[in-house]
Structure formats: structure tokens, C-alpha cells
Amino acid sequence: MPRRTTTPNTEKQLPSIANRGYFSDYFLGYRLDAGLDELYKRWDAAERNGDPTARTRVRSLSTSFDKHRAEAANTAPDLADNDTRLNLGTLNADDVTALTDLNDAILTALGWTPTRGESVTLTSGDKVVRIPAAARCDTATGLLLVALDTAFATDPATVVADTAAATGTLLYPLRLGEKSEGRTVLEAAQLIFTADDAPSYILVCSGGSITLLDRDRWGEGVYLGANLDDAVARGDTRVKGELSAIAALFSADAINPGDQAQSVLTGLVDRAANESAGVSKDLRHGIRRSVEILANAVVHDVRYRQKGAWQQIDPDNLTRQCLRYLYRIIVLLYAEARPELGILPVDDPDYQSGYSVARLRDTALVELQSDHARNATHLQRSLSVLFRLVNDGYEPEATLDTDARALTFPGLDSALFAETACPLLDRARLTDETLQQVLAHLCFTREQRGRGRQSVSYATLGINQLGAVYEGLMAYRGFLATEALYELDSDGDPDTGTWVIPASRADEFSDEVFVTEDGPDGQPRRVRYNEGDFVFRLAGRDRQRSASYYTPEVLTEFTVRHTLDTYWDEHPDLTAADILHLTICEPALGSGAFLNEALNQLAARYLKAAQDESGETIDPDRYQLELQKVKAHFAVNHAYGVDLNPTAIELAEVSLWLNSMHPGLQAPRFGARLRHGNTLIGARRATYTPDQAKKRPWASSAGSPSVPPSDQPLHTVPLGHATGIHHFLLPGEGWGIAADAVELKG
User: Is the pLDDT reported for residue 444 higher than 90?
Assistant: First the structure.
């Protein structure tokens, strides 16, 4: 039966917009107009009254481009001469004037009043930063935005390519104290955004383009830009066309909140995050289905080869191995979306064409026409080779041919990719039909009536979103059906739990409580499991019993920030070196949402303290790498966590690893610092003496320790004088969370 497809929604075409991680591609292409609806309505009303708006002014920029563009373009650096700096002294004065006139026209059209001749002054420690801004915008809460002039450029990516980008050369350098500093956009951003009273945004005007940098995200290489040269030439003047979108994203109407609680742009960012959460929910559903698909493929393969051996399969072990296999693919998709992590040779064309998961993803929605195609194992073999190269690494042999180019894998040496991680799946025969379904679930949103499947953007799905995806699965359990079963759901929401009944009892229940799915003919049918099928489901109260609830990023950020603010207030003399020795513990670990947020904020605070103490600023090209290195230091040496769910420990290890990964770092071993156990066991804080522990009182045949722990808890003993051993470190009273830790023996 041919695969049923749904016609996708029409994607909004905005070729001039340069969106480097500011929004997801899906949001920009399909959801932007909905987010701008209120702003467009305000403009519609104003234009009906004959009043100008940012939209009408941007549509009229062609006049200024006709007048100034030719001379302004003369200031563009000649990239063919390989100069890393533009010599401002070689620019013709009339050309510079034309460029600033064009920039003034752009700023005015966007609703930013040019303020040339006025220097914006910021404080950075004991130094003063003076900014020859083209425009500034102040609000009741402080400086919101400064605008800077650069040489003529049409591509925003070249303007912020690196700190030495000739195309990003400022017409008027910043001054730090008595010295000229910040000669390029990224150099200026480092000085401006690290100042004590920094603005929220920098708007870069380059004549043929504009680029918006956000204080909270610029260090990650995130920006939003527009090629005005192309957009004005195309002249898309539709009410919600290309020029309207530029006005709606970069104008004062969008960025300045005025008397509102938040600006239009901030609202868009929040909405895009919520859209990502919706994609996360689809992805969680896809992973849940993928666990069932993989597990059933393993069971089917075992039944085919060994008949009744499937009954000996441990469903919990099979579940863990399926999740690990899916973790592997998720890690690679995430790494391909973030080449700066250095996990994969993403930019190598040989990798892209021969090894990448993206190459396999493109086959996920292709219909397999024959039994031979469906039963082949090309995808499994491709993934196996990739998993091995990623884990073991590959360094080509030396050659005398200096022009030779060879593919290199750094090698992760990760337990996740080790041969012992997924033996059941590695031994099984996973057909292309099986893995095609898995890849489709991991790479695309669910197919729904009236909405086509969209690609999941792993570039905009951060650690927190991936944590939310997996944490929602921790309350699910797998089992092997011993008879035919139907799945029931009383409230129509599988996320609240379902239950199964023997097929023989189906007549006892009404039709509306049966869970259904679309069959090959597109018609709904009851979900049925046959004998031997693997069932992965959430029982009605499993979620409540396991306390598997995800903390949203906004709450983790707020909680950690205010906790650290209080700590800094109580310890005002902390040095950068002191910060490096702080220890973090999340007692209810889950996916590590709080632990990762603490890593992020501590790393940022350390780098700020280190720069303040040394009086030197980190090159923006190196800032993200240095941030990752500091996060890795905390993750590997000072991060601790406990959780009742063993799957949570594996998930937290992966999330900590991805959050701190950087080129040259092999997958960390978190060992005894992230442990499976019960946090509440430490509530008594009672202890055994060393002599009591040597006699192994917990081994008493009476079923309880023959020698009770001391009633004197450790917190009452002076620091440095404790001689007891906490009861929860030993197997007494049914605990012993760390008794089997290799790192703690001896």
C-alpha cells in the first residue's frame, strides 16, 4: 500500500533574511506571520488613516538606494587583496558620506533616529568605553540599543564572520580609555556587551545590509540580519511580504517595548521557543514510537532465529538499549547541527555525502517499492560504520601529497557508542523499513491532517528541550505481551497514561475508549498488540509515582540566577579561582536541567571574573570555545546528581556531555558523581563507625542491621573531625547507593 502523504503548508519565502539560530527555520518559514499579526494590524490601521509606518518607509528605501548606493558601495573592501583589515584612510570622503547618508535613511525608515556626533559612554570596570554610535535608543530601564556604521556590505554573515573581518570594519572605532579599540563589529560587540551598563542590542548598518546582535545570544554566534540590497531590488511590497518582514523584525516598533511589558521581538522569541516546545512534544512521541519499533524488530529477529528465546529477553534491558541506540542518533543529529562542537567533521564534503545522518534522513520519507528494498540493511550498516568512526576516531595515514585531503574523525571514546552499549540491537537484523521509520520519527514532526511533516531543527533544540523530550519518557515502561491486547484511554490524551486489556475482553468496553491509529489505508483502527509484541507505554499513575516532571528553562534560569546572586552577595570576595572550585549538586537529577543551567551560569560568571581581574578581554572568536572549556571543567570535576530512575542517570550524562563538549574533548566519564539512588536516604545523616562497618552489620540474617548506626549525625561533628561513615554509603537498611561504585572501592 503506498505511503499516505500530506501536502505541506506553503513556506514563507524570505531570501534576504539571514537567520543564524535566532529563530528556528520552521518558525521563520511557517509561523512568523502569526507572531507578527498584532503589529501588522496596527500598521494596517495607521496606513488606512494615511499615517506612515516602518513598513511604508522601508518600502520607500529604493529612492535612497538609487541616490547613494553606487558611491556607498565604493567603501566595500576588496576581498581579493586578502587584507584582514580595511584601511579607512584609503576611503574617499564623498563615498563615506554617501554611505552614512544611506545608513541614516535605513535607520530613519526603521524608526531609529540618527544621533551622529554624540558619543555613547559605557562603564567597563574602571575603564570607560566611548561608542561613536549612528543611533541610540534609551528606555526607562536603561540603554536598549546602539547602532554602528560599517563599510558597505550586502551579506550579514561576512560582517560578523570573525574579529578581523574586513567587511565588518567600523567606520568609526570605539575607544577604551584613551586607546582606539573595537575596530570591527565583533571586537566592538565584545567591549559593548561586557560593559557594566550594556545595551540589549547592537544594530549594525552596512549600507547594503543590517545585522542585529542580541546581548544574551551573540556569544553563541547567533544573529539576525537582512540583505537590504537584494530586498529593495526585488521590491516585494505585499502587506506581509519581504520588506514588511524586514520592517517588522528590525524596526523600533518591533524592538522597543515602549509602555508594553515586552517588545514584539521578545514576544517572537518566546513564541518561537514555545513552537520548539511543540516540536519537542512531537519528538517525544517519535522517540516513544521508535523505542517500540526497534524493540519489536529485535524481538522479531530473535523469534525468527531462536523461536522461543524471545521470552527470555529482559524488557527493561531492551528498553535501555533501544534508548541508547536512539541517543546515539540524536547526539549525531545535534552534533551535525552544531559544527562548532568539533564532534564530527561536518564541513567536509566527503562526510556530508558519504557518512552524515542528514544524508540518511533524506531517505526517511522515500517510499520503499519492493520487499527487497524493505528488507535490506543499508541503513543499519551505514549507522554502524558511523558509530564506530565517531567513537574510535580515524586519522588517515601520512602521505607525501601535500594537497591530499582526507576525512578525519576525532574519536569520542564514549560509553554511549561502545560495543557493549547496545548488544541486542547490534546483533539483530534491523531492516531499512524499520530504521526508515525511526529516522522519520526523529527527524520530522508528526503527520497530521491539514499540516505537513516539518524537519526537526536540532540547531534550535537546545539541551533543555532535548532534556524535556527524554524526561517525558522516563515514566514509560516496556513489557512483552503474552497474549493479544488492545490499548485503552479514557480521556483521549495518551500523555496522561493508558492501559491495556486482553483482546478477548474487547466487547466489554465502548468504542470511544480504544486508542486508535491511522492504518495503511488512512482510516483509523484500534491499536492492537499480538503475543510477543513489545509494548512501551505510560500507565495511568506511573508518571505521578515516578515524579517524572520536567522543569521549564525559564524556571531553571530564574532559580539558578537568584541562587547564585544570593551566594555572591554572601561571598563578595570570591575570586575567579574560587569560582572554579565551587561544587554543584542536583538531588533530583532527571535530565540534569538544573545542573546544566548551573554549569552555564557559573562558566559565564567565571569568564567575566577572570577578564575583570586580568584586565583583558577574550577574543569573540574564542569566547564560545573558552565558555565550553569552563563548562567542561565544572561538569567533569564538580557536578553531582542522584536520581531514582537509572535511565535518568544515562540521560543526564549525555546532556552534560553535549552541553560541555568542545573540540579535543573526549566523552567524559562521570563515574560516581552521577548516581542511581534515593536522595532522601541522607535525611537521617546517621553514621557507622569504621569498626562497625568492618563487621558488615547489614549482612545480618535477621533482616536488619545488628548494630544500629550512631544517633550522632555528621552535621553535629566539627568540620574535619568526622570519623563516621554515612549509612547510605553502605548497603545497610536496603540502601547502599554507592557501594558498587568502582571509583569508591579501595
Answer: no
